[in-house]
Write a structure and sequence with these properties.
This protein is mainly α. It contains seven helices and no strands.
């Protein structure tokens, strides 16, 4: 497993760059892989709330105020990264609850079947890799809590999403 995760860490580098220098998806994946390898957090000062991008446009000139599913799920990704490093059951349970709430909000706001299942597949994969029983228990509960979304139709799904 160690060589697989080490190789995955190298691949994350390609995902980590965006116009701000580091993408949320790449950063959170790097944090999750480091946690699985029991290495220090490569981004210990990662923000706990989604970044708000400033706009120079007036409100009535904006093309869209909607965020993508992946932007909406950023907060769940951050809680997941922190969950993998939780040091006690109370913290793990709190982070798991917050993660499920964040992902549920993203699922409800704007998501397709494949986007929701990408999150669920990732959580299930982490469950298989994590050895800490407390974190495994929280991942299993989170998957169970989010499983109702697996086949749930949303307003976007009927539009061909």
């Amino acid at each position: 497993m160690q060589s697989y995760l080490t190789a995955a860490r190298l691949g994350v580098g390609d995902l980590a760059i965006d116009d701000d220098g580091i993408g949320v998806y790449g950063r959170e994946n790097a944090r999750q892989i480091a946690a699985l390898l029991d290495e220090p957090d490569p981004f210990p000062d990662a923000p706990t709330e989604p970044a708000r991008r400033a706009t120079s446009r007036r409100t009535d000139e904006r093309t869209s105020l909607r965020r993508s599913f992946w932007e909406c799920s950023d907060l769940g990704d951050r809680h997941l990264s922190d969950l993998l490093r939780a040091s006690d059951p109370h913290t793990a349970a709190d982070l798991s609850r917050r993660m499920v709430e964040a992902y549920s909000s993203a699922f409800a706001a704007r998501s397709t079947h494949s986007e929701r299942n990408s999150v669920l597949d990732h959580l299930r994969s982490l469950f298989e890799l994590v050895r800490d029983p407390t974190i495994r228990d929280q991942l299993e509960r989170s998957c169970s809590d989010l499983a109702s979304w697996e086949l749930a139709p949303t307003s976007n799904s009927s539009a061909g999403g």
